[in-house]
Amino acid sequence: MTAFDLLDYRREVAALYALARDPALPGADRCRRFREGKDRLFREHPASPLDDATRRSFRGLSYAPYDPRWCVVTRVDLDAPDDTIEVDVGEDGRVRLTRAGYLRFELEGAACRLTAFWIGGYGGGLFVPFRDATSGAGSYGGGRYLLDTIKHADLGSHGGGPVLDFNYAYAPSCAHHPRWVCPLSPPENRLELAVRAGELDADT
Asked: CB 3.0-4.6 Å disulfide test: which of 110, 116, 183, 202 passes with 62?
């Protein structure tokens, strides 16, 4: 894999998220086409998170059925401590995550909160990982990502608050191969409910 392979992969991912934000398409169609495109990248692209042997036998990621109830608009609460967490990501050094604010919303009638982090470094980016009751028991144990704007994982905003659509929740690359080292969800971003949406384990 070259730097230019990775550049092309990120372009492809950006195009998929642009599709996911397209209001001209019904939500279920956007999600289906997004998942088909992502599976194609995992299977065919040289910058796939999978190794060559796994790519040859890859038949697609495991997803929960699309359900619009898992898409929420958040309210931004800036009353969060702006201290910084440093995360070791192997050969890439340490990533600095600074709390940018809390995202407040409701899921299944429960009030929920996730911390939105700003990734330090050139350009920066918004990062929202989470764990839930399925983590390690139906989905990747280290948690999943909702937003990672450096990698174009961005579903837009409504009324000033980022849209969180758990139908697009995905496991980080380290869930697919040990050569990747990823920042995992911190304890404060644990949801008590079971989020049976987005990417799940194959046997779920």
From this structure: 202
